[in-house]
Task: inverse folding
């Protein structure tokens, strides 16, 4: 039964009015649900065809229909259809005037409001079936429509079809004519809604049907069949009833952007397939052997049939599936998913994305190739497969991803340069090392100049169960441009702008004159800066601003502008491929500056140069001029470096990206500083007993290390038999002063770098998308032998002997290595007779330091083979030991009765020892031997050195770094060798946690302290809901 077009206009108008309302705004879902409820009786009729109504409500879903009608052409059709004169035509063209605030649809509505169409009693109402048939007829005459639509061409000439469309306008009201205009243009803006709202409200089964067979016409027929036969009663039955059909595109899984490694893992579960994301064009390949030689059909991402456009790929598909051969593994047909790429036999690699347009036509035409080189004989198309949906009438949509890939591997025969399976690795998100594994895989992809990663859960492709887990059956797309500020390029000059009515309608800014902005680079920057020549700009891209940025630009920037024809201030070079040949309507005399980020670089069609791909505006600079922006030569150099051959896998760039990705994760900066710290060496002033001080580059609070360094420590302090000379204190004072100055300088520089450039790029203006470790600090690996390989073996200090009797002689004296970042600086006012820390005058060659070249402390980078040693020449104060006061929960800290044993890999991390443990005021040891003596655990000393009369036993806890498997294994063997025993002689099993539990405890105690709450069960180690449990490693 016919469905009136005015009913659809009722819904669209209500949605637009609701969007404009200032108060009492309702959701789109409520309005759509109410509208479908009103017309349910008509929609649910068995003779009601769903396709015309769905095509009218969702015109963008009809990618098979192309009308070749834009605003100006439609304006002519409407003007002729309504018989408008010259003055009315000018009124109809008001949408082209910047600042008018109206689009073509509203101009049509205004015309028909002033002079409404005459209403005839015998005139039949316009229905959605009438409009759908007319638009289908128009699309059948356009060569860019799908082959199926073109096959229904009725033979009418173009002028006749346009006249029929003009006649429809004569039968519509002003409001309905407005929405017909937007329907023809396939853009209902400013009304935007989720298509799933339409599917769910039309029929509960329709969302599932659309997933399996993503074609409105086919889905409408299936739904009618289900309603007529009543064979399906629920979604469970529907899942068995639905299966893919050859020749009908299957819908795609939901895709989610991963904003960080942590964000990806939060959305993941179980085993994930981590696949390389290919920078090509999506292909869904249908093989129907019943069609003989023409058995291949290819759908693009939009759903359009592009079989003939990609005919150059057919040979690779035939070879990989062995079509037409007795060994062909397919009996009836199959549906596969893959990516189309261009491969060069000469360079033995996959070429850039812009090379595809030379090999793939668009409805028979090669577009945007005027500036490209000709196709070379060594270049050809390649297919990379990554999924299988159906084989021989058996649907695999309900099969897990791992099983589908196994079937795919058996099906495909790979030929180098012609066909391949996607590169992938399996990551178990339930393992503790999942974040480290994913971070390394992502860093490898970045270093190899890959597009990114795709994370796919081991789930069915579609799951129709309403009780499924969140993010199940969803693919996660991870690119470096999605993380932090990794996509930043630099500053670009904004040389011009133009106005687009449809875009202006979506921004509630009155009298808006500019919607699209042309950015470019100076071609003669040196001449302009040195000789004040006339600037020549090359326009590289057109960008749009969001509403906030647009409001800021109009209010605070608002540069002086002239029309394109009147411009004499600057010279503009606009290639035909920029913005599809459109020119800016106005030119800015003094171009403002935008900070641009992008996905990568590409050579757009008909341009011939590198330009940012998918550019976005980060900032609008009001304090910079176009002289500060990138020049055209600099932009081309940046792009060339980005596209150059990737370095070896073991390069420093890989380590830099791993550290940068860890820093980009929420709450991971501290962990990253601990594991990837930059080591600086500050040289002290000239002195007879000078020593270089090596400290971490970030200043940290102090720790409470109450234990002596283990025997394996590089430097062992001893108490001298005679007190040091008074000049020693003076030398240390000068040294400490210079070190404090250097520390403040490093701290301020570090804060500046963090604020200006948190990404792994070089300091100063960002000129490259990739990290360059030649311009950044080196990453120093752990110096302990268990924590990684070292190029040099550390020699023992033969001239330094440890006096085992010093503890018995003076229990107040507990020597430690005091550095500039330590809270235990020597007290110069202390009685020197108590002793001092003496550093030997001669050190082994592997631990030598350079002599200072000047009296000023100068920071220098240590190589990876140099040891981080902090020798001090000063009197030895009495160093306090024992548990101090917790900064977060004084008197109630849950760590006060715990003795921590640190593995060698984290014992040197100041973030762990001084920030995390030090802020809680707790003890820690480095050697499990000290646990064998219970007195060492019950001994408590106050700041004056008086022993407590009531010693108490402390709970033992081992802290390790689970990311360092070999080091952790070696440390566990060391604990096993010690043989810890209980008082009854039984083995003493000690709980072991990852050191990051200290970060979790610190955050929780901070919250409790701010709220004035007592520590709850989440801080109790043995409680079921404790935050300790997620960092549990095992028993040692």
Result:
């Amino acid at each position: 039964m016919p469905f009136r077009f005015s009913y659809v206009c009722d819904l669209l108008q209500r949605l637009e009015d609701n969007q404009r309302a200032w108060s009492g705004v309702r959701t789109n879902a409520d309005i759509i649900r109410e509208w479908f409820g009103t017309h349910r009786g008509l929609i649910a009729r068995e003779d009601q065809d769903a396709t015309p109504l769905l095509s009218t409500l969702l015109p963008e879903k009809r990618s098979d229909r192309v009308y070749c009608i834009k605003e100006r052409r439609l304006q002519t059709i409407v003007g002729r259809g309504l018989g408008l004169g010259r003055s009315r035509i000018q009124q109809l063209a008001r949408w082209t005037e910047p600042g008018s605030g109206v689009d073509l649809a509203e101009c049509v509505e205004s015309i028909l409001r002033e002079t409404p169409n005459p209403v005839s009693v015998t005139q039949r109402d316009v229905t959605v079936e009438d409009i759908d048939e007319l638009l289908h007829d128009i699309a059948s005459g356009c060569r860019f429509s799908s082959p199926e639509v073109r096959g229904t061409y009725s033979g009418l000439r173009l002028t006749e079809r346009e006249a029929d469309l003009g006649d429809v306008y004569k039968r519509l009201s002003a409001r309905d004519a407005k929405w017909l205009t937007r329907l023809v243009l396939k853009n209902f803006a400013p009304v935007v809604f989720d298509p799933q709202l339409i599917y769910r409200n039309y029929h509960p089964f329709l969302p599932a049907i659309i997933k399996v067979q993503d074609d409105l016409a086919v889905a409408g027929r299936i739904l009618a069949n289900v309603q007529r036969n009543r064979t399906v009663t629920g979604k469970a039955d529907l899942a068995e009833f639905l299966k893919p059909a050859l020749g009908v595109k299957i819908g795609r899984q939901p895709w989610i952007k991963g904003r960080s490694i942590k964000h990806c893992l939060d959305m993941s579960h179980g085993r994930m397939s981590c696949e390389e994301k290919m920078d090509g064009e999506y292909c869904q390949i249908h093989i129907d052997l019943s069609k003989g030689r023409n058995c291949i059909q290819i759908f693009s991402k939009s759903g359009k049939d592009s079989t003939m456009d990609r005919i150059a790929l057919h040979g690779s598909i035939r070879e990989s599936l062995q079509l037409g051969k007795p060994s062909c593994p397919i009996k009836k047909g199959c549906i596969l998913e893959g990516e189309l790429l261009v491969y060069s036999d000469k360079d033995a690699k996959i070429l850039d994305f812009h090379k595809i347009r030379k090999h793939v036509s668009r409805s028979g035409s090669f577009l945007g190739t005027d500036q490209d080189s000709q196709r070379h004989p060594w270049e050809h198309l390649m297919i990379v497969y990554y999924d299988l949906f159906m084989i021989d009438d058996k649907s695999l949509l309900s099969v897990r991803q791992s099983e589908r890939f196994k079937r795919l591997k058996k099906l495909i025969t790979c030929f180098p340069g012609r066909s391949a399976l996607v590169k992938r690795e399996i990551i178990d998100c339930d393992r503790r090392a999942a974040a480290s594994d994913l971070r390394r895989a992502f860093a490898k992809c970045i270093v190899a100049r890959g597009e990114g990663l795709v994370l796919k859960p081991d789930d069915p492709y579609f799951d129709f169960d309403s009780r499924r887990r969140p993010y199940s059956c969803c693919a996660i797309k991870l690119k470096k441009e999605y993380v932090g500020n990794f996509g930043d390029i630099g500053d670009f000059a904004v040389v011009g702008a133009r106005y687009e009515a449809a875009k202006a309608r979506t921004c509630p800014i009155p009298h808006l004159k500019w919607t699209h902005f042309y950015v470019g680079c100076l071609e003669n920057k040196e001449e302009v800066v040195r000789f004040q020549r006339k600037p020549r700009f090359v326009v590289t891209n057109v960008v749009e601003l969001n509403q906030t940025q647009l409001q800021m630009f109009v209010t605070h920037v608002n540069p002086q502008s002239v029309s394109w024809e009147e411009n004499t201030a600057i010279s503009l070079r606009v290639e035909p491929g920029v913005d599809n040949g459109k020119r800016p309507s106005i030119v800015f005399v003094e171009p403002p500056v935008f900070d641009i980020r992008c996905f990568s670089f590409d050579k757009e069609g008909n341009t011939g140069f590198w330009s940012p791909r998918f550019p976005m505006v980060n900032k609008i600079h009001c304090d910079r001029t176009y002289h500060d922006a990138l020049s055209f030569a600099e932009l081309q150099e940046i792009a060339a470096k980005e596209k150059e051959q990737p370095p070896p896998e073991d390069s420093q760039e890989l380590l830099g990206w791993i550290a940068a990705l860890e820093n980009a994760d929420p709450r991971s900066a501290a962990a990253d500083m601990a594991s990837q710290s930059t080591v600086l060496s500050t040289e002290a002033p000239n002195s007879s007993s000078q020593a270089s001080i090596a400290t971490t580059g970030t200043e940290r609070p102090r720790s409470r290390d109450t234990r002596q360094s283990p025997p394996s420590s590089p430097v062992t302090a001893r108490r001298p038999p005679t007190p040091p000379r008074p000049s020693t204190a003076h030398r240390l004072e000068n040294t400490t002063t210079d070190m404090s100055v250097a520390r403040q300088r490093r701290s301020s520089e570090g804060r500046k770098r963090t604020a200006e450039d948190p990404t792994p790029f070089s300091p100063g203006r960002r000129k490259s998308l990739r990290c360059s470790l030649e311009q950044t600090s080196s990453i120093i690996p752990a110096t302990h032998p268990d924590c990684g390989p070292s190029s040099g073996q550390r020699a023992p200090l033969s001239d330094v002997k440890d006096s085992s009797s010093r503890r018995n002689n003076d229990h107040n004296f507990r020597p430690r290595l005091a550095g500039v970042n330590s809270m235990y600086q020597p007290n110069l006012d202390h009685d020197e007779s108590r002793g001092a820390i003496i550093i030997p005058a001669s050190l082994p060659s592997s631990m030598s330091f350079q002599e200072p070249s000047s009296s000023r402390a100068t920071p220098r980078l240590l190589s990876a083979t140099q040891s981080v040693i902090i020798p001090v020449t000063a009197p030895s104060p009495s160093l306090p030991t024992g548990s101090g006061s917790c900064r977060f929960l004084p008197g109630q800290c849950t760590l006060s009765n715990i003795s921590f044993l640190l593995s060698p890999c984290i014992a040197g991390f100041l973030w762990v020892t001084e920030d995390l443990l030090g802020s809680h005021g707790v003890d820690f040891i480095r050697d499990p031997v000290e646990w064998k003596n219970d007195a060492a655990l019950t001994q408590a000393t106050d700041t004056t050195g008086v022993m407590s009369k009531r010693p108490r036993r402390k709970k033992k806890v081992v802290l390790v770094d689970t990311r360092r498997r070999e080091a952790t294994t070696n440390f566990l063997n060391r604990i096993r060798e010690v043989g810890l025993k209980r008082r009854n002689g039984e083995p003493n099993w000690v709980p072991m946690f990852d050191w990051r539990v200290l970060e979790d405890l610190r955050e929780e105690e901070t919250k409790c302290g701010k709220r004035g709450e007592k520590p709850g069960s989440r801080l109790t180690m043995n409680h079921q809901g404790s935050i300790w449990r997620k960092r549990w490693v095992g028993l040692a």
Remarks:
- Residues 668-883, 935-950 have pLDDT under 50 and may be disordered.
- Residues 727-756 form the longest helix (30 residues).
- The CA atoms of residues 215 and 248 lie 7 Å apart.
